[in-house]
Every structure is written in structure tokens, then in C-alpha cells.
Amino acid sequence: MRRKLLIADDHQLMLAAVRTALEDEVDIEIVGETQQGPQLLPLVGRTSPDIVLLDLHMPGMDGLRCLELLRERYPMVKTIVLTGSDDPAAVDAVFARGAVAFVQKTVHPGDLAAVIRQALAGNVHYAAGYGGQHAPHREWDLTAREVEILNALAAGRSNKQLARELWLSAHTIKYHLTNIYRKLGVAGRTEAVHLAYEHGLLDPLPRTTVESA
Q1: What is the number of domains present in the chain?
Q2: Residue 132 within a domain
């Protein structure tokens, strides 16, 4: 069954990028686009989307207010916030207003369809750049997503498990791992976990879990 998607973003290039990323997906149909916050609710009423992809910074009515009105008037429509922000306060704000996912615009285009499917399935999550539990570690210049992946490595997750649990492509997982190894100056996952654990980059874990990673 095809699911209907509406996109709201004030940048024409971003609208075009989303269209390109989803053009070959047979189960997702883009039924509307808008660059203006006040146009969103009327457009939802006309197109009856299953899900809305919403930027936070919309002219005329910001994304947070759009979320409030969507939840009030169209509670069955799910909303993914797609934004350039990585502010933890923004994450809390969008979920408090009913968003089902928070996704940074740095998301790999090939992962966007998977994010939409997961949101439609009712799974609340973060994607591309914000892990929800850790701020970026400045000393090593690790992003929050990289810290999240490091913790998953310490728990013994394989690349395949990481891709499945984080709803990212194998290509994106490898990209993140390459960046982690480069920043930490290590050759692989075992060295990365031990170095990160020794320097307090990871949450405390049982010793046996770390040594078996």
C-alpha cells in the first residue's frame, strides 16, 4: 500500500532533494509540498497525508506551532521533523508536541525512506546526528551519533545490527565507523571501544561486556 507524504520546508532545494531521494520508492507517494507555515494545515486538509515531513524553521508559522495544530486538528497524521538543528531542547520540544521522529538534514538520502517507514510503523526515534543521550564529545570532536555508535560497539553490536537498530544503511554505518576510527586514531572497533572506555567517552559498562566487544 502506498503511503502519502506531505513535505513542508522553506528551501526549494531541500524540497527537490527529498523528491529525488524518494522518487524510486514504490510505497511512498508525495502528495503535496509547501514553503509556508500557514499553508500547511489547509494543504493537509486537501491531501489527507499519512505523514508530514516538517522543517522547524517555516516562515509565517514556525514548525513547533505547526506541530501543535497538527496534533490538535489531524491527530492521525504522523509528523517527522527534518531540521538542521541539533539542539537537545529542540528535540524535547518536538516530541512534546507529538512528532514521531527527529531527523537532521545531514541524514544520508538513501536512509530517508527507511526513516519514513519506521515512523509510519510507530517507532519514535532520532536519526543522523543526534543520539538523544549524549552531547558531542568536544575533546575528540565526536558527534552525538558517533558516541551513540561507540556505545553500541561496546555492547557488542555488529554492523548489521547497528544498521537495523538505527535504521541506517550499511553505507552510512561504515561512514560513521570510518570517522570514529580516524578521530580516535585507531585501526578498528576493539581499539576504539577500549580507548573510549579508558577515556570516559562511554557510559560505564560491565567489564565482561567491554572485553567481549
Answers
A1: 2
A2: no
pTM of the full structure: 0.63
Q: Which of 121, 118, 199, 192 is nearest to 157 (CA)?
A: 192
Query: What does the pLDDT look like over 196-212, one tens digit per residue?
Result: 877 777 755 544 444 43
DSSP state of 208: H
**Are the C-beta atoms of 32 and 6 separated by less than 8 Å?**
yes
- What pLDDT, on the 0 to 100 scale, is given for residue 79? 94
From CA 125, how far away is CA 111, in angstroms rounded?
Answer: 13
* CB 49 within 8 Å of CB 31: yes
Per residue in 142-152, pLDDT (tens digit) is 776 778 888 88
What percent of the chain clears pLDDT 70, i.e. is strictly above it?
Answer: 84
**E-strand spans in 43-152?**
51-54, 78-83, 101-104, 125-127
The CATH number of whichever domain residue 197 belongs to comes to 1.10.10.10
- Residues in Cβ contact with 179 at an 8 Å cutoff, skipping those fewer than 6 apart: 146
